[in-house]
Write a structure and sequence with these properties.
The chain is an alpha/beta fold and 186 residues long. The protein is built from eight helices and five strands. It has one domain: 3-Layer(aba) Sandwich (Rossmann fold), CATH 3.40.50.300. Helix 1 packs across helix 8 and helix 4 packs parallel to helix 5.
Length: 186
């Protein structure tokens, strides 16, 4: 008997991409469909640090946030398989990129900057948007190359609702050999 090309269990599925792309929304849908827990890394960090991400950044605690983010990412990836939705900046640390490359199937949810601006209009909860009109472009310039490099699968989100993005991700995973459950009907 030959060894299967598929691992004994699919690893954690990690959704990466810029803010506003739908990582949390699609992640929750994927988790439900795959029968796995959904972990929103920013929300988990907020619980552990006792403050919203925006407040941590506003009070100069971004370095602490990033350090704790790396530790928690490692903990989650060492645990049982889940669907993970980290913040868009998780890819900035080389350590995090290495962890994701080794321990997860990484799906990059892509969005144009124009669509991203439309989706984020009026969102006061994003600390990195407070840096002026060029803040989003600067943030994307630092992160976008990492998203593409890490991705096992790239799924375009422009023009698609969360349910459509879910189906596109599942189709891509099935093409990679994942066992993907059929949608429930009725």
């Amino acid at each position: 008997m030959t060894a299967s090309a598929r691992p004994a269990r699919e690893p954690t599925l990690c959704l990466i991409g810029p803010m506003g792309v739908g990582k949390t929304t699609v992640g929750a849908l994927l988790a439900r469909r795959l029968g796995r827990p959904h972990v929103d890394l920013d929300r988990l960090l907020e619980e552990r640090l006792g403050a919203p991400v925006a407040a941590l950044f506003a009070t100069g605690r971004e370095r602490e946030f990033r350090r704790r983010e790396s530790c928690l990412l490692n903990t989650v990836l060492d645990g049982p398989p889940c669907v993970l939705s980290p913040g868009g900046g998780v890819v900035l640390a080389a350590r995090n990129r290495l962890l994701l490359a080794r321990k997860a199937t990484v799906v990059y949810l892509a969005v144009s900057e124009e669509e991203q601006r439309r989706r984020l209009a009026g969102d006061g909860t994003r600390p990195l948007l407070s840096g002026g009109s060029d803040a989003l472009a600067r943030t994307n310039a630092a992160r976008l190359p990492h998203y593409g490099t890490l991705a096992h699968l790239v799924v375009e989100t422009v023009g698609y609702g969360p349910g459509d993005v879910l189906e596109r991700v599942l189709a891509g995973l099935a093409a990679r050999g994942w066992e993907v459950p059929c949608p429930r009907t009725g």
